[in-house]
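Entry under discussion copied across for reference:
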Amino acid sequence: MSVGMAAPRSAYACDPDRSHGRLYDEAPSQTRSPFRRDCDRVIHSTAFRRLKHKTQVFVFHEGDHYRTRLTHSLEVAQIARALARQLGLDEDLTETLALAHDLGHPPFGHAGERALDACLKAHGGFDHNAQTLRVVTALEHRYPRFDGLNLTWESLEGIVKHNGPLITRDGTALGRYRDRGVPCGISDYLGIHDLELWSFASLEAQVAAVADDIAYDAHDIDDGLRAGLFRVDDLKVMPLTAGMIADIDSCYPDLDDDRRGAELVRELISCLIGAVVSEARRRLDIARPQSADDVRRYGDALIAFSPAVAQAEAHIKTFLKQRMYRHSRVMRMMGEAESIVSDLFARYQKTPRDLPPEWLPPDGAESDALRARRIGNFIAGMTDRFALTEHQRLFDSTPDLR
C-alpha cells in the first residue's frame, strides 16, 4: 500500500465500541465515540490552554515564532494522525494521546522539571508523565461528578505507558524508573484503577510516542536555525540531512537559507514518517496481532524506527544536544529558570499564605509531604509568564531570561 493512502481499519486498532470504559460511568455520547470525547475534553481543559505559554526551548518573550508546548503538541498530533491513518489505527485516540502527552510539564521546559524534581526529592520527586496523569484524573475541576477529565482506560494507559511498560510482571521497575521506582503519582493511582503497567500500550500510544520524537527533531532544527544557533550547512555533518540538503540544492540552486531550512524540515518529517510506516508494517507482518490486547501482550514495541533510521535519528538528537540544548545562551536561560522555580517553591513552603486561597488546605493542616505536593502541583500548572510574574511579586530581583 502506498504511504499516501489511508489503510482500512485494522483488527489490532483500539475499538471505541470495546473500550474498557471510564472510572466513573457516564451515559454514552449520541454524537461522538468515547475516544473522540476524550480528545475534546483534553482540548477544552485548562491545562491544555496553558501550554500556549510554556517553554519548549525558548522562553515566550524571545519571539512569537518559536515553538511552545502547545504548538509542539499540535505538531505531534498532526504527525501522529498521519501515521495512524496509514496503519489503520483509531485517529481519535491517537490524537488524544498526542495532545495530552505534555499536560504535566511545568514552566520553563526540562529546566523547570529538574528544579521541581529537586524540590520534591524528599517526597517522591517530580515526573511530568505522572503529573499528566494527576492533571487528567484529579487537578482539572470542570465536571460536577468527578475531578479530572474521566478519560477512558485506553487514554489513561496511553498517557502512562506510551514509552513502554513501567514494570515487569513481578513489579520490578523498568527503564527510567529502574533506580527510583514508579513515581507516586502513578503508583498511587493504581490503587483505584489498574493500568497494567507491565504491558505495552496500544499502537495508538506507540504512534504518539514516535510522533513526539519526529516533531522534536524537525521543529528543534527549525527553531535552532531561526535563533541563529547553527546554519543549514552545519547539518551536513549527518548523512541523513546531508543527502536531503544536497537534493534541495540540486533542485533549487538559488534558494535562500530560510527556505532551504524550511524545505529540509519538511523533507525530514516526510522521511521519518515513511520510515516508521515501513518498519511498523514489517513488524506487524511478523507479530500478526489480531486485537489491541495482542499488541499489549506481544512483548516488544511494534511502532519504531528501523535500526538504521534509529541511528540516523539519534545523530540528529546528538547534534541538537551539542549545538542547541547546550548552547551557552540556552544553558544560561535554563539555569536562571531553574532558580526561579526553586525560589518559588521555597517561598511557598516558608510562607503558605502567598499561595492563592484555593490552593490552601481547607482546614489549614496537612503533612509536610502533602504540602510539598500541593505546592508542586501549583507550580507545575504555571505558565512561564505567570511564574515570572509571581517571582517579581515575591522577590526583589528576577532574572530577565533573555
Q: What stands out?
A: DSSP finds 16 helices and no strands in the chain.
